[in-house]
TrEMBL record, chains A, B:
Coiled coil: none annotated. It catalyses: (2R,3S)-3-isopropylmalate + NAD(+) = 4-methyl-2-oxopentanoate + CO2 + NADH. It comes from Sesamum alatum. InterPro entries: IsoCit/isopropylmalate_DH_CS, IsoPropMal-DH-like_dom, Isopropylmalate_DH. Catalyzes the oxidation of 3-carboxy-2-hydroxy-4-methylpentanoate (3-isopropylmalate) to 3-carboxy-4-methyl-2-oxopentanoate. The product decarboxylates to 4-methyl-2 oxopentanoate. Keywords: Amino-acid biosynthesis, Branched-chain amino acid biosynthesis, Leucine biosynthesis, Magnesium, Manganese, Metal-binding, NAD, Oxidoreductase. PANTHER family: 3-ISOPROPYLMALATE DEHYDROGENASE. This is 3-isopropylmalate dehydrogenase. Its cofactor is Mg(2+); Mn(2+). Homodimer. Binds 1 Mg(2+) or Mn(2+) ion per subunit. Gene3D superfamilies: Isopropylmalate Dehydrogenase.
Length: 358, 358
């Protein structure tokens, strides 16, 4: 039987609850598909800070590197919000992404027919939205140097960061995006600010050059401010979006909120080789942590992405995706996606219903 | 009688049409309020490129500097899209902002009761939205140095920009924002990415320090990705937002689209002293240029902001604002905000109706 090691990183807040559900789900499909999982649970984020003094302990990173795939819950919480930069939970996440070299972050934003009412957009605008944001994840202003604090010629304090992209960084994320678009509806929109930023001008140039290798993908370009508008005006115009790290951070969150159900949205972060990192796009929700109220479906769907993109276990992935839809069809809802007449359940019970559907 | 010089910069696309309407409007309220206007029309953007070879001729900048206020139509068009950086219409606009030192860009996003159906958001979400984005306009990654293209240690091409803020730049925009919030509903949300960027950490620190001087303003902080979500989820939670140049570019466009009627939204860009720059937030719309289809109301309302913020002529400004509402109440609509049962008019006729309302 096929055997895989999966590092589980529950993290903070609702992380442990949703990871526990996803683990049970993985275990059940594994037994049905003749897969064997070895799970290794490691600390990251605020809980790692409390335990070891750093947000990404070396043991966690090496366990992650040594595994076939990594499933993360969520990180962060009020408690650590005022920590210095190197002691922030977020810094652990950035170190993990850099350490695993997962430069391509895939963030689907899909409006499920069962949940179209959850969107704040009018039904006719939200209905049928199905887009994928491909976000560059290990470059740009998040990691660019020089960065820091200094004094300018007037003796004033300054804070500064560098937005920088090299050709190979643009090319590799663009390739992932073209391939992604090809498997979807064949439309790729590259988002930049090439009317102002040199880093964006190089981005646009390289993406445009690569297009000739993907004749079956229709490439367009859009400025980031316009993209932020178009996502509200008519999100259905988009199939696949590719953009840099910071624009991807903003636009993928905007796109996810357009679906109205961010408790449902998974993500995959992939590198050239080595294990991928899979996580729900929602945060650690400290206000409802430990209350069995969290929606575990984003993490369950992240586990499906782990099977599909991380391990090539397409069939097992489809089992999970189908089970999630079936559970929704049977009327089960956590609080975040609940509407009158349906069955309100907690995190655990939702997990059990998914297992039944499988 | 009070006498002012106003530089008119029609620019490109629909710019000349909407400026012509705004000019007539200014002239009428002037005669009613005992104001005298001297108008000077100068080229900027693509039309300046065609005429003089540069997007901001020296004569245009010095005329603007010598006047009491500047009213801009719109700049840009397909024709110049592939120009080199220093020959882009956009570069002319950036040079104008820098030349006039207008560091504070005020962008209201208001959903008028008459136009609530124009929003793609559900009525209960859009109804009553009334927020103001205060965007830093002459600093950050738009102007930061070093910037450009270079070769990295692997011999690869790189494109790079610098996001940088000095304390005085943060303090002066924060002061404008606190003052703005004070005159509105007393709530200020500062948007940054302080969990990742040093430039944002300094931003947050300075804004927080200034808060003690404005005890009647309630300050909160939000990460930019979350702000992009919250604008879609519940825009009514916002009163005044203050943020850096690039985040302000993205979020103010998103906010404006949430109103559903960007053909209605004005903006004001102000400096420490010297003339302010007033412009509609919409673009040059080359596809409908010269067809008498443009909505002139954003420019007319920009003229009202010019009277209020630029010249301190509050009463004249209110006359214009009231006239715009009255024209809408009387059922007149340009194509972009038209709905069945109302009176569809072109740019010129809309302008004449505003004059009648005044
Ligand atoms: C927590 C934060 C550092 C992170 C990011 O900005 O990348 C988060 O917003 C995300 O999008 O995964
Ligand atoms: C045209 C462009 C340079 C400009 C900007 O990015 O500032 C525009 O988008 C705006 O917001 O006024």
């Amino acid at each position: 039987s096929r055997s895989y090691t999966v590092t589980l990183l529950p993290g903070d807040g609702i992380g442990p609850e949703v990871i526990s559900v996803a683990k049970n789900t993985l275990q059940l499909v594994a037994s049905l598909e003749g897969i064997e999982f070895k799970f290794k649970e490691m600390p990251v984020g605020g809980s790692a800070l409390d335990l070891t003094g750093v947000p990404l302990p070396e043991e966690t990173l090496s366990a992650a590197k040594d595994s076939d795939a990594v499933l993360l819950g969520a990180i962060g919480g009020y408690k650590w919000d005022n920590n210095e930069k190197h002691l922030k939970p977020e810094t652990g996440l950035l170190q993990l992404r850099a350490g695993l070299k997962v430069f391509a972050n895939l963030r689907p934003a899909t409006v499920l027919p069962q949940l179209v009412d959850a969107s704040t957009l009018k039904k006719e605008v939200a209905d049928g939205v199905d887009l994928m944001v491909v976000r560059e994840l290990t470059g740009g202003i998040y990691f660019g140097k020089p960065r820091g604090f200094s004094t300018n010629e007037n003796g004033e304090e300054i804070g500064f960061n560098t937005e920088v992209y090299a050709t190979h960084e643009i090319d590799r994320i663009a390739r992932v995006a073209f391939e992604t678009a090809k498997k979807r509806r064949g439309k790729l929109c590259s988002v930049d600010k090439a009317n102002v930023l040199e880093a964006s001008m190089l981005w646009r140039k390289r993406v445009t050059e690569l297009a000739s290798k993907y004749p079956d993908v229709e490439l367009s370009h859009m400025y980031v401010d316009n993209a932020a508008m178009q996502l509200v005006r008519n999100p259905k115009q988009f199939d696949t979006i590719v953009t840099n790290n910071i624009f991807g951070d903003i636009l993928s969150d905007e796109a996810s909120m357009i679906t109205g159900s961010i408790g449902m949205l998974p993500s995959a972060s992939l590198g050239e080789s080595g294990p991928g990192l899979f996580e729900p796009i929602h945060g650690s929700a400290p206000d409802i942590a430990g209350q069995d109220k969290a929606n575990p479906l984003a993490t369950v769907l992240s586990a499906a992405m782990l099977l599909k993109y991380g391990l090539g276990e397409e069939k097992a992935a489809q089992r999970i995706e189908a089970a999630v839809l079936d559970t929704l069809d049977r009327g089960y809802r956590t609080g975040d996606i609940y509407s009158a007449g349906l069955k309100l359940v907690g995190c655990k019970e939702m997990g059990e219903e998914v297992l039944k559907s499988i």
